[in-house]
Amino acid sequence: MSRISLQNPLVSLEQLESTVSKEDGIPEALEDDLRNLGGELIQSAGILLKLPQVTMATAQVLFQRFFYMASLKCHGIVEIGMGALFLASKLEESPVRLTNIVVVYDYLLRHARNQSTYPPLDSFSQRAYDMKNLMITAEMQILKQLGFNVHVQLPYGLMINYLRILDLEEHPTVPSRAWNYLNDGLRTNIYVTHSSESIACAAIWLACRDEQVKLPVTPGSEWWLLFDTSLNNFKVAASNIRRLYYKKLDRQSLPFYPKEVEEWLNQEKA
Hints:
Layout: H1 13-17, H2 20-23, H3 28-48, H4 53-66, H5 77-91, H6 98-112, H7 126-145, H8 156-165, H9 174-185, H10 190-193, H11 196-210, H12 231-243, H13 258-269
């Protein structure tokens, strides 16, 4: 009898080295930027829609997983982002109306391109209708590409438990900083390349480093050994999070849709 795993499915080394998008000629830097921007749009939309953080996080993990199964040349970050958020709202029992998602996304897209956000999108307009169709199709594509494996294990609870064990749960700043690092990590691929244990340890390590809090590193009794991870694993995850802060996103010129990706690639070849 096969066993059902509650761990997040992680990408293989082959998938990581040669993504579907890379095989379609999309540079790694562009793929990273689009993953970052797609996650940012989901988070911003979730905040405006007043959705729980667990819903926004689940949507971003599904978004990141999807683009290891499909190409950014065929599927845009807007449609897949909306589809992932709509699907996550059902999985986490925080339902949201299709109309509300498209109105919020339209606002965010116009804001990213420095376009006027007034008046807001007419929910009965052709654009709203088209965006709803894109979202519904994207939700089905996500389910198809992921084989309906949409279970997501988030590291927030683990991190709180780890902080309690390290006697840092009541620290005035470390828990909130670590929480923020977990949120920022959703804009990278670490939730599909690292275990929840490693991600939780990465967030704690970054927060403690910021606040100059020393963690136990006695040889043979290092703090991370308590949490079933390795020094290399959580430091790699931490470095991927930190990379976000050193690269500015050019939101005005990044391609939102497959057609724009094609145009971007053609310009690069010219």
